[in-house]
Amino acid sequence: MSFNSKKSIASMVAGALMLIAYAIYALGAHAPAADDLKPWALALLVFIGIGVVAVIVIQILFHIATAIGIAVREQERDRKKIDRRFASLTVEDERDKLIGLKSSHISSIVAGIGFVAALVGLAFGASAVFALHILLGACAVGSAAEGIASVYFYEKGVRNG
Predict the structure, then answer these.
(1) What percentage of the chain has pLDDT greater than the value 70?
(2) Nearest by Cα to 35 from 132, 102, 134
(3) How many beta carbons lie within 10 A of that of residue 96, not counting itself?
(4) CA-based nearest residue to 40, from 150, 134, 125, 105
(5) Residue 68 has what pLDDT?
(6) Angle between helices 37-73 and 128-156 (to 10 degrees)
(7) In whole numbers, what is the pLDDT of the chain averaged over residues?
(8) pTM assigned to the model
(9) How far apart, in whole angstroms, are the C-alpha atoms of residue 109 and residue 145?
(10) Orientation of helix 3-27 relative to helix 37-73, angle to 10°
(11) What is the Cα–Cα distance from 147 to 124, expressed in whole angstroms?
(12) Vertex 149: Cα angle to 148 and 152 (nearest 5)
């Protein structure tokens, strides 16, 4: 499995953990009232902030683990050789950019569908809190779809067109 596939999987795991943490909070005893919009919006903002920090920390730990794995696998003690090998893994070329574009396109489609679903829900009398949860779910599913597409394209290949 390629470095970029592993990186995408690490991001998906971080996103899934944050979604699970939010679900535990939302279904728990300390959740705000179902019709109180301000505390739910604040909770979503807090979880989004925590999610961003968690993804950054997990990516840093992933890069450190990768560098250690390279050193152990190749029995290298020379830092320059390890740095060159790691740099060769992390360089981004046109294929990586194409995969990123195709994956983010899929994510945008899913998030857009979620946005329309939230608007439809509001138009037919759903609560604003329910619409917030639809938006959060759509963003989470879109992010997961982006990660899955990225792994698929890295492992199976991608064509321009």
Answers:
(1) 96
(2) 132
(3) 16
(4) 134
(5) 81
(6) 20
(7) 87
(8) 0.81
(9) 10
(10) 150
(11) 32
(12) 85
Model confidence pLDDT, tens digit, residues 12-51: 998 899 999 999 998 988 888 878 889 999 999 999 999 8
Q: d(Cα 134, Cα 151) in Å, to the nearest integer? A: 25
Structure tokens belonging to residue 23:
């679900």
* Coil/strand/helix, residue 127: coil
Q: Residue range 67-72: average pLDDT?
A: 78
| 3-class SS of residue 75 | coil
Tell me the two tokens of residue 27. 């279904």
- Give the C-alpha distances (Å, rounded to integers) separating 55 from 49, 83, 90: 10, 23, 17
pLDDT value of position 161:
60
Answer yes or no: is pLDDT of 111 > 90: yes
The answer to whether the beta carbons of residues 6 and 152 sit under 8 Å apart is no
Q: Which of 104, 147, 139, 145 minimizes the C-alpha distance to 118?
A: 139
As a dihedral over the C-alpha atoms of residue 59, residue 61, residue 66, residue 69, rounded to 10 degrees, the angle is -160
Give the count of alpha carbons within 13 A of 8, CB side only.
23
Q: CB atoms < 10 A from the CB of 28, how many?
A: 8
